[in-house]
Structure formats: structure tokens, C-alpha cells
Fold these 4 entries.
Entry 1:
Amino acid sequence: MERIKCIISYDGTAFSGYQIQPNGRTVQEEVEKALTKMHKGKLIRVVSSGRTDAGVHARGQVLHFNTDLIIPCSNWKKAINALLPEDVRVLRVENASQDFHARYDARQKEYRYFVLHSEDKDVFQRNYSWNQTGNVDLKAIQAACKHLVGEHDFTSFCSTKTDLKGEKIRTIYHASCHKEDEMLVFVFRGSGFLYNMVRILVGTLLEIGRGKRDPDDMKNIIEAKDREAAGETAPPQGLFLWEVVYD
């Protein structure tokens, strides 16, 4: 039995999220459907580095699965892509050790969130960014980002709808925001992220950028450990799972 590691990308627009659910099209369902066809009807389950919500995209989601087929990695990529819909692509396939686990072995994840800072909406960006107008102080956002780096209890940035029962302590290694033409690009790298954490961070940072809060307020929001202390939840379409890092 071989263990295969796959790096995939997907456009989350038409998906109800990554994980299989009773009603709604999902990324996991499409990948498993393709693999099951390759295995002549034998159900093949895949394990991912984590879930993404409806409308959220991925540039570097990582999966693993077990197989009794002996196929070169380059052929795996071609074969799976031939059976996948156009909004999911396999980027790379590797042989993995039997103890590799896409979720539990992940050491860092990088998410990026895109905000189109423009008075005019762009119809070609509506599924891949959040359109915002008005003045935004980028330096204030950057100053607030510095308070996020390190190990903190991020309860204030976790949706109350989470099913997580344990502690909400996470480590953020990098948090920043820069501008590329009219696009504000938020970058977060961390040991892991809570449910809706990046989207709540972006919503809060934009409130700071608009002068509704002070950059130093970020410290108080973290210490509050209360979802009510943070800002709004940014919509899903601007969020991308960018990369998953392993040892």
C-alpha cells in the first residue's frame, strides 16, 4: 500500500466548502470521486491539511490518501486532473512515508486575503476579493499587525459557531498588509488558525485602517478573549489558503 501526497488548488466559488456534507458540492467529494474512478469503484478517502469554508479558495491545499495502484507521480497528476472539474487542479504529487499525515504533520499555514480598495467594483474580482471604498491608513494596519505576532489566545478572533472545545492558543509567525496597485494584500502565517480567524482579523484591521480603532487597541482585543471585542467577519471570497509547510 502506497501513501500519496497531493498539492491541489481550487476556486471555491461554486463549492459549499472543502469537507463532504450531505447537501452541497464540495472539493473533497470531487477529489474522492476522481480517485474512486481510478480505483474502479473502490472508495478512496482523502485527508486534508484542514477545511475551508464555502467560497474560500486554495492555492496550496495538501491531501494524502492510500492506494494499491503503482503509478509514477507524474502520471498520477495527469490521471487525476483528467477526471477533475475545471475548478480543481492537482499541482503536484509525491510519494509520502506511511506515517505522513496531511493534517497532523502541518507545521505552518499561510493564508492571504485580498481587498480591492477601489471606488469602482471590478466584475472580474467579485469572487476573489472584498471591495472596499474610502480612505484606508495602511501604516495603521501595519502597526496593528505587529501586535498579532507571537503566541496568544485568539478567542476574540474565533467564530462563536466553532465546534472547538479546547484552548484557542495559536502562534502567529507573520502578519502584514501591503498594497499591489488597488489591491490590499493581507498575509498571515501561523501554527494554525481558528474558525473564521483570518476573516475576523481582516475585518478588525480594516476598522483600524479607517480610524474607527487605534492600532494599539489590538492588544486589548486579544486580551479580552471575547468575540464581541473584535470587528466584523470579512466575507469568504477574498480568502486563499496559500501554502501549508511541513518539516
Entry 2:
Amino acid sequence: MTELKSYVRSLERSRSALTRADRPRTFAMAGREWDLLEDVFAPPFSATTQVAMEILGLVGDGEPRYRRDGSFIEIGSGTGIIAVTAALNGCERVVATDISTAAVENTRLNAERHRVADRVRALHGDLFSALDPDERFDTVYWHSNFVLAPESYRYETVHEAAYVDPGYQAHRRYLVEAPLRTTAGGRALLQFSDRGDLDRLHELAAACDRELTVHCRRSFAEGPDTIEHILYEITPAS
């Protein structure tokens, strides 16, 4: 395992992000101010959230990869910056889920801060577990915890779930369930990284009768490393 892909290194980053002396209570991103609660993934400490917004076309002049006037669900919403920005950009119905109760509250706070609480519903749940069985969306999106941890690893804090996925158990479930949650013509999207195990991801997709189509690749610097993020669309295998 390379250091870049090391789950131990990712867990160290998780622990550091919780205890850093410079951890802010609010931060600026995408031209707006955002609340940041304790125990929630901190976008100021990583370029990945800004990159995710650019890849989706939520900011900048890139191609929008979501339906602007449609429905949108974000899995693992954290501070809610992506879900709230989707609503600000015109999405009429936005749902944000997270397994962290602090993240759910953080998303609600930011929806209220930016006056879209009537269009953003924040739910506590694991992937799609908090949804009604018949809920469908034009865009289903997860910026995943792409670093692979051993299947036997057990999270010490819920914050670690934003960084690593033991045995890619959550990825397997998302590959199966995400396409089932789209409207006719909707998109199931997964944002992954070369920090993760790309071969394992494709093996899982094949085992789940799913195909992965690359919509966008983006390389960027994070500290001394160069990282690539990849936006996949998940579809049933033909």
C-alpha cells in the first residue's frame, strides 16, 4: 500500500482535523460564508470540497452535471455546502443525508443561513436509509469516503467515516442502490479518487451488475501530493 492510499494516514488526517488549533467556526467558500460545527468534516482543511463543486458545475463555468431545476440528493452532506449550493442554483427539492447527527445539524444551519431551508431537507441516516421507499431524484450524488480500510476496522469516531470505508461495504451498497433512486433520465453519480482502490471499485461494480462511466477527471495539489478526483456515473450493466 502506498502512503497516499494508506488508511492509517487518512485516519491521522481525520484526528488532526478535529483538534487543530486553527479549526474555524465559520469559513468562506464559493463566495459565501458557512457554519462549521465540531465533529464535522472541515472543508477549509482540504481542497476536495471546492473541487467537488467545480466538477459538479455548482461553481465556475464548467458543465453542470446535475439538473438545475430538478431534485438533488447528497449522501454524506457534512456541512451541507454542496446541498445548499444546489438549492441556491435552482434545484427545487434537495435532500441531504449523513450518518453524523452533527453533520445533519450543520447542514440545517447552513440551509437556514442561506435562506433555502424550505428546499433543503437534512436527514440522519446511512446512505438511503432515512428515505421513503418511493423517493426518487434527478441527481443522486456521493463524494465518497474513498480510502479503503480493512473490513475488520471499526470507527473510533463518526468523523472517521468521512475518510475511510472498511472493506468498501458502503461503496457496494451505494453501487447497488443509487441507480434505483433516480428518476427516469436521472443520474447516479459517485465522486472517487486515486487515493482509493480503483481496481477494487471496478470489481465491485461488475459484481453488482453496474457500469461506471467517467464524466470528469480533475487533478489538483493537496499539500505535497497531486490527487486526481474522478466523477463516475453508475448505471445498470447492459
Entry 3:
Amino acid sequence: MKITFRYIFTVIVLGMLLASCGSKKRVVTRKPTKPVATTTAPSKNETPTSEEKDDDKVTTTIKPRSGDKVQNYIDDFKEVAMEEMKLYKIPASITLAQGILESGSGSGRLAVEANNHFGIKCHKGWTGGRIYHDDDEDQECFRTYNDASYSYRDHSLFLKDRKRYAGLFQLDIDDYKGWARGLRKAGYATDRRYPQKLISLIERYELYRYDNIALGKDVDEKPRVIEEVKETQNSGFVKQHVVVKGDSLYRLSIKYNTTVEQLKKLNNLKSNDLSIGQVLIVK
């Protein structure tokens, strides 16, 4: 059969018509893409679940502050006071009690504005910061510090480097009563009740416990009290003391609020040597 041009054209047209009558859906092949992770920031009121919490996050518990500002002060500075005791042999109990008393438990003007917790005045040779404050006289010069811990260190050096306080370091390191009296006698404060105020603070807040910790002793061990040494009282106004181990004229002068010279005069002593069992007139 002879194939004509008209036959070929007819076949092509029929093929196009059949293709147009088929499914119009097309299969499209695309390159897969990685899913995009989306996060929604939690609202301020939402609490994250345990799965949402960061395992590396460190949480700390803040101890609530006491209503007693003295106790708060002790909590803030007890570690500093114990460190100073280890380095300079000054009872932590005395340092803390002085800090409480001199700074108003950290609320006094010198403590707040100058970080001066011990009322240390400028004195000759001081080249650091200064603040002027009414004390025994109007507008006296007091030292300033960048941090309260520097005030504690300067307090240690102030006592250690001055000859008038040298006798304090002959006392037992945990003899807080002897230290309290010795500070007043050496001229640290003019208040006649200064020793009693320090002792009252130490005993009320058991500050001697920090002496024990610094010395590596049982924290609840009671300190040896100088007043427990044997003493007798004669009739009238003469008071005697029986010398025991550890006594010295300087220690007795602090205990009985007198002077070494007066004790030597009362007892006709030509030296500072004492013998155990020796009876001394102290008042």
C-alpha cells in the first residue's frame, strides 16, 4: 500500500489528540533538603521541663539573711578574721568584735563610705585615701580602703607593728578577755567600757568558736578564762593574787586594771620575775 503524505499527517494528529486525553499529573523529582528546626522561645511564665534544662547549668542556693545585722556581719567577715588570726596571731573573736563595735555592724559612715571597719585614723606616714569624720575631735582624718578586706589586713598590721600593742602578743592567743582589756589599756579606745563591750559581743555570739576553728581545736571548746586562777581576798580593801603557771606582771596588770609599775611598788619587786605560789598584792 502506498503511503501518502496525507496518511502520515493524519497519524500524527491522532497521536497528539490521544496524548492530550491522558492524565495531566506530572511526576516531579526534587533533590531532598534538610529539615529546618524551629524553636519557640518560652514565655516569661513558662517553667522549662527537665528535658529542656541545660545539664551544664550550675545552680546555687542563697542562704537567707538573718534579721540580726550583727549575725549577718559575722557571716560576712568570719573567714577574713580567721585568716588574719592564722597570719598575725590576733584572736578572730577580738577582730570580729572590734569590727562589729567600730563599724556599727558595717552600717556606720566610715564602713559604708570608706570601707574602714576599725576606725583607724590616718596617723603620720599614711599615704592612702582619706575621709574626714567627727570623732573625739571635729573632722578627724580616717583611712579609706578599696575593699573591706584591706581594712582587716591594715588592722592586723596596725596592732602588730606598734610597740604599744606588743604586750598583747605575750597573751595566750585565745585569751580574748586579756586582749579586750589590753587594747583599752594600750590606748586603742578612750571608752572606759570598751573591754566589757568587746567581751559581751564575744560571749553573746560565741565568737571564740572562730578562734577554735583557726587553731584547729574543737569548735565548741570553751576558752580558758583568766579569772579562774586562784585568788584570795583579805579583809578591808587589800586584794591578793596567788601566782600560777603562765602569770606575768603584764597579764596581771591587765586583769586587775593596774600597771606593772604599781604592782612592783605594792610588792617591793625589783624585777619582773614571778614564782608559782607567790602571793601578790594587786589592789
Entry 4:
Amino acid sequence: MRRYAFLLYPFALVYDLVTRLRNLFFDVGWLKSVSSPIPSIVVGNLSVGGTGKTPMVEYLIRMLYNEKRLATLSRGYGRKTKGFLKANPQVSPVEIGDEPFQIYEKFGKNISVYVGEDRISALREIASSPTVSEVVILDDAFQHRYVKGGLQILLTTYQKPFFSDFLLPMGRLRESRAGAKRADVIVITKCPEDLSSSDKAIFKKKSTSYGRGATPVLFSSISYGEPIPLSNSGIFSSRVIVLTGLANDRPLVDYVGGKYDLLEVLSYPDHYDYAVTDFDKIRAVYKQHEAQNPVVLTTEKDAVKVKSNAPKGFLEEIPIFVLPIEVNFSPADELALAQLIQQKVFKKDNN
């Protein structure tokens, strides 16, 4: 908890009351939830960000797109447009948001990518589309209770699990820990690869104490690939300036610091929209270290905004590399997740 956060306790109580009343209205039927017209998987969290939703969505895409006609739907956080849109070769991050654009760039040949604030209306549009989708992944929709998903996946990080966090503004929770009871599976993300069985048991016990007793708890870690040049060419250097716009960049910074010679970190807020002054700062920091022939290393999500917003000639002037990220499960947890998808989404019994 942040220092002096206890001073915000009265505001957290008010926030708790509002969110509990909203959930109560859904629970008793005063606010209506509608089943998705398409088999669906909901990926979300209880906190304000940083749990790894986009890498998890990409993991599910890789798992399913060879078997099913697949679509993703998000509200397109940070976009400058409104309403329902389908990604196409002419769209930009400004129009659909950085994360949907990232997904479209990586998987657009194999899946359909949609954005829309009104998810019920958007799902009906997708269901009536000539390109029929067999399953849709709803990104960041755990609190969007107007839609009932087939499988509700709740993400929480190993570093800041929901069961030890607090409601806004004291902590980062968007609703109380009791919201975990709606999850069909809880995934502890960003775990150390050598997480012990005893640590897993503790996390399972604490997670399920707020959810349903039999809710499966799975564990995932992240792995980073080899840096890829953002422009057409470039030679990677082990002397690195990190550029991030994440809710929590600590795991990334720790990884880069352990693998490369970390010269400096330029850290911006989550979903940051880079402006001309920011590129001036990046250039100035690069010039400070130019004698060491450094590179700027950024995330896939940030690369979308950097590439879209960079001034003319900037990408040729400054060597920028992108660090790919993927989610990993143990074989047992991967099988458990696949079985849940079959049972909950496709209504197939694996027994």
C-alpha cells in the first residue's frame, strides 16, 4: 500500500459502496446480463491494469485460431473514435486503440479484430457479420456485467495479487475482492519460473477464499523473445535505453537489467500517447549515451504508438527495437485451461 494511503480510506468506503450496489443489482436481476450470441471467453481483472491481459489474449489466440474462426472485442481504450469498428489495413492506433492495433498487426490475417464500447451491440454486429466467428475473446470485460461470457478468466499478478490489494483510491482494485467469485478460473500472472509448490498452495488458498471454493487457480509466467528492429533494419546492441508506457514496468526493467547493460529508463503512464516533446526527450537521452552505441528497447504495445506518432525520419535516426513477450503455462495448467474452454465455451465434456 502507498504511504499515507490510510488517509484515503473514507473515499475507498464510498467507492466500495457504489461498486457493491452495482454488483448487487446485477445479482438480483435489477440490472440485466445478456448471454453472448457467440461462444465467448472473458479476460479481465479486478485492478486498474498491469495484469497482462493483452499477452493472455494473444495466448488464447495462438491456442484457438487454427481450430476456430476467431474474433477479439475490446472497447479500444485511448482511441479517438466512438462506436463499433472492425480493424482493417487502413486503420491506425488512433482509431482502434494501441492494444487492438497490436493484435491486428500480429494476427489480422487469421482473426477478426473489433472494438466497441457497447459490447452487447458489438457482439450482435459480429454475430450478423458475413465473416461468421465461432468464438470471441472479450478483452477487459470482467467488470462489464451486461454480457455473460462462457468462460470468465480473472487475471492477477504474482507481485500484487488481488487478495492483498485495496480498493481505489487506497489501492488499485476497481471492485472488492469478492468480485473473484464470478471467475471460472483465476490465473496468477508474471510468476517466477521456479515458483515452488508451497507458494502455489498459498496463492490457491488465498485466491479461492474470495472466490468459489472449487475455482481452479492456474499459474503463468512471461518470457521475452529476441529484440526485433522497429524499422526495416538495425543492429542490436547490449547497451540499452528502455522506453515503456505500462501500468507496471518493473518486471520488464528487471529482465532487461539482468540481461543487458541498462543505461536509462524512460517510463511513461499506461497507454501513453507519445508527443513531439517526448520524441525530443528520447533523442536527447540517446545523444547523451551515443558514444556507447546504444539502442532504445520498447514493448510491443509502445511500439505501436511510437511507430504511429514518430516525427518523419525519427525511426531512421534512433535505433529502436521491440521486445516480444509471451505467456507460458506448465503443461498441466495449459491442459486444464484447454479443458475449461472446451467445457465452458464449446460445451464439450472431456471426461
